[in-house]
Amino acid sequence: MKKIIIINGPNLNLLGKREPEIYGTQTFDDYFGTLVEKYPNVSLTYFQSNHEGVLLDKLHEVGFDYDGIIINGGAYTHTSIAIADAIGAISTPVVEVHISNVHAREAFRHHSYFSEKCAGVIVGMGLKGYELALMGLVN
Ligand code: DQA
Questions:
Q1: Plot region of 24 (φ>0 → left; ψ -120 to 50 → alpha; else → beta)
Q2: Domains of the chain, each with CATH number or no CATH
Q3: pTM, two decimal places
Q4: Is 111 among the catalytic positions?
Q5: Nearest CA owner, ligand 1 atom 12
Q6: How many C-alpha atoms does 19 have within 13 Å on its Cβ side?
Q7: Cα of 117 vs its chain's centroid, Å
Q8: Ligand 1: distance of its center to the CA of 52 in Å?
Q9: Is the model's pLDDT at 139 over the cut of 90?
Q10: Which of 98, 108, 110 to mutate to test the pocket of ligand 1 (most atoms within 8 A of CB)?
């Protein structure tokens, strides 16, 4: 069974109540439950942290062992060379996801330090983007 982890960064614990006009009204726990049910043949886990170093530690922990990582780095996407370096350092393929279309928002959201290190990038498809990333990693 393939082992895939979803890693969410800062403020994504607030999904459901954070700017619902941008990020929707569903909590991530609720969405994650539907994914787990829909993909019983994938060993799917979920991790969230608001702390850059904790996200680095998790990438190091899973990055040589898991079959795929789906990461939404939140605002760290646009600031963190350290997380980009970690993505480049590990052997597990990483897919970057953004719920909103970052290219249709403020200019500072247009650049990602992660993208060039990732196997793929999915933006602007809402929470469905995590499922699209999962499909890409398992097929
Ligand atoms: C986000 C986009 C980022 O610019 C923002 O800082 C987030 C969420 C998204 O999923 O659309 O926290 O990664």
A1: left
A2: 2-138 (3.40.50.9100)
A3: 0.97
A4: no
A5: 74
A6: 7
A7: 14
A8: 15
A9: no
A10: 98
Task: Tokens 């439950």: give the residue.
Answer: 33
The two beta strands, 42-48 and 68-72, are unpaired
E strand segments, 13-93: 42-48, 68-72
Of 76, 98, 113, 130, the active-site residue reads 98
Report the distance separating Cα 44 and Cα 1, nearest Å: 10
pLDDT tens digit sequence for 59-114: 999 999 999 999 999 999 999 999 999 999 999 999 999 999 999 999 999 999 99
Instruction: Measure 85 CA to ligand 1 centroid, in angstroms.
Output: 19
Largest CA distance in the chain: 40
CA distances (Å), origin 65, targets 2, 60, 75: 10, 10, 26
